[in-house]
Amino acid sequence: MNQEIEEIVKTMQAYGKRVTPQRIAIFKFLRACKSHPTAHEIYAHVKREYPTITISTVYNALEMLVEIGMAKELGFSGLGSRYEANTRPHINLVCQICGRIEDVDDVPLMEEMRDDIKGRSDFEILDQRTEFYGLCGKCRKAPGKGR
Predict the structure, then answer these.
(1) Domain that holds residue 142
(2) Given 62, 85, 108, which residue is the final one in a domain?
(3) Which of 76, 80, 104, 105 lies at a CB distance of 3.0 to 4.6 Å from 91, suitable for a disulfide?
(4) What is the DSSP string of 45-101?
(5) pLDDT value for 44
């Protein structure tokens, strides 16, 4: 068993969750996918390897992965729910034309901002979500779309 699968299995077992090949496949796809897929996109991909999987199995697995902190569900206006395995603090760049979502990791000011907020208030930050909306490079260059 490779290290990635061992990590997935250990985390699920630590939370008392049932480990199935389908759940592992869903998480592996989510971790490898940088496009913030919908549940239906995940279903379409995993169905190639597991033809008998149902969309409800995918939704249940995603709900479990979110519950144990291995994934995040992101709701975007007009784009519905998207999922990602990148649970570290980062910025999501959201294209308002094509809906593409891109992660920007390791932004030094994010930690500074969190520390500043902690120092100014009695608020305990458990999670954060930061998004910038605009146009991706492809849409910006498209005729009649860019600025």
Answers:
(1) 88-147
(2) 85
(3) 104
(4) HHHHH-TT--HHHHHHHHHHHHHTTS-EEEEETTTEEEEES--SS-EEEEETTT--E
(5) 97
Which two three-digit tokens encode residue 43? 């279903």
Assess contact for 78 and 95: CB atoms under 8 A: no
pTM of the model: 0.82
147 Cβ contact list (under 8 Å, min separation 6): 135, 140
Do 81 and 57 lie in a common domain?
A: yes
Segment-wise mean pLDDT, segments of 10 residues, the chain, 147 residues: 85 95 96 92 97 97 95 82 90 90 84 86 86 92 69
pLDDT of residue 128: 83
Query: Which residues does 9 contact at the CB level (< 8 Å), separation at least 6?
Result: 1, 19, 24
Give strand pairing partners of 75.
Answer: 81
Name the phi and psi angles at 24, rounded to 5. Answer: -65, -45
* Phi, psi (rounded to 5 degrees) for 57: -65, -40
Could you give the number of structural domains in the chain? 2
The two tokens of residue 35 are 């496009």
